């Protein structure tokens, strides 16, 4: 898969055939126009670059969450696969029995 940033740049530089109408205040329009001029861009390019940057961040976050959900689902599947009556290793059983015994001993001493 290609670099998302170069794909974004290519998309912004492609022939502009879609229209996006915006309503705003005179103050916001003038403020954006001044910022665009300072940046050396026309208003459309300035607005689209800013909006595209924010949209990429939103999509990246969404895709990360979607991937996390998929990974969690796959982990859940893996943990659910196999023999349901899994016997723990003897060392784990011994360890847990020892911890339980020590906890009981502490309770008896605390009474």
Automatic annotation (TrEMBL):
Keywords: DNA-binding, Repressor, Toxin-antitoxin system, Transcription, Transcription regulation
InterPro entries: Ribbon_hlx_hlx, TacA_1-like
Keyword Transferase: no
SUPFAM superfamilies referenced in this protein's UniProt entry, alphabetically: Ribbon-helix-helix
Any Pfam family hit: TacA1
Keyword Transcription regulation tagged: yes
Family the UniProt entry places it in: Belongs to the TacA antitoxin family.
UniProt-recorded name of the protein: DUF1778 domain-containing protein
């Amino acid at each position: 898969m290609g670099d998302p940033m170069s794909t974004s740049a290519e998309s912004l530089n492609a022939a502009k055939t879609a229209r996006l109408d915006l309503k705003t205040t005179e103050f916001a329009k003038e403020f954006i126009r001044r910022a665009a001029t300072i940046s050396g861009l026309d208003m459309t390019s300035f607005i689209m670059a800013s909006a595209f940057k924010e949209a990429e961040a939103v999509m990246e976050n969404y895709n990360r969450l979607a991937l996390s959900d998929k990974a969690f689902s796959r982990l859940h599947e893996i943990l659910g696969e196999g023999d349901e009556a899994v016997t723990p290793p003897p060392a784990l059983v011994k360890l847990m029995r020892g911890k339980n015994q020590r906890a009981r001993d502490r309770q008896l001493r605390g009474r």
